[in-house]
Amino acid sequence: MQRPHDVQQQYWRCVLVITNALLVIWFGVTFVVAYFARELRFDFFGWPFSYWVAAQGALLTYVAIVVLYAYVMHQLDAVHDVDAVDD
Fold first, then answer.
1. What are the pLDDT tens digits along the chain (87 aa)?
2. How far is CA 7 from the centre of its chain?
3. Measured at the alpha carbon of residue 66, what is the angle toward residues 73 and 82, in degrees to the nearest 5?
4. 61: which residues sit within 8 A by CB, 6+ positions away?
5. pLDDT for the residue 35
6. Is residue 68 classed exposed, middle or buried when 0-12, 13-18 and 19+ CB atoms within 10 A define those classes?
7. Residue 14, C-beta contacts closer than 8 angstroms, at least 6 positions apart
8. What pLDDT score was predicted for residue 69?
9. What is the pTM of this model?
């Protein structure tokens, strides 16, 4: 049987992995894709790809990151039996 301290460490390790993975995605969309978007000269849904990345794609990705984080954290909280604490 795991001790409460071990369960808490496992929970926080999972939180850090999830957070770091989503930060890597955020960095890739914000800096890497936007940096190379000018070189990708093709039309995407009738607009230049660089415009689409800046005006639509990045924002949709940010919303998806927030929704994914909320969903995954809810699942992780349920697995580790962690309730939100109101202070």
1. 566 788 889 999 999 999 999 999 999 988 887 787 777 778 877 878 777 777 788 899 999 999 999 999 999 998 888 776 544
2. 24
3. 15
4. 25, 26, 29
5. 80
6. middle
7. 76, 80
8. 97
9. 0.77
Q: Is residue 11 within 8 Å of 19, Cβ to Cβ?
A: no
Alpha carbon of 23 to those of 30, 47, 54, 65, 77: distances in Å? 10, 28, 18, 9, 20
Where are the alpha helices (H) located in 1-87, listed in sequence order? Answer: 4-27, 34-36, 49-52, 58-79
The whole-number pLDDT of residue 2 equals 61
Q: Rounded CA gap, 41 and 44, in Å?
A: 9
From the centroid of its chain, how far is CA 23? 6
Residue written as tokens 């301290």? 5
Structural contact between residues 12 and 70, judged by C-beta atoms closer than 8 angstroms? no
| 8 A C-beta contact, residue 49 and residue 37 | yes
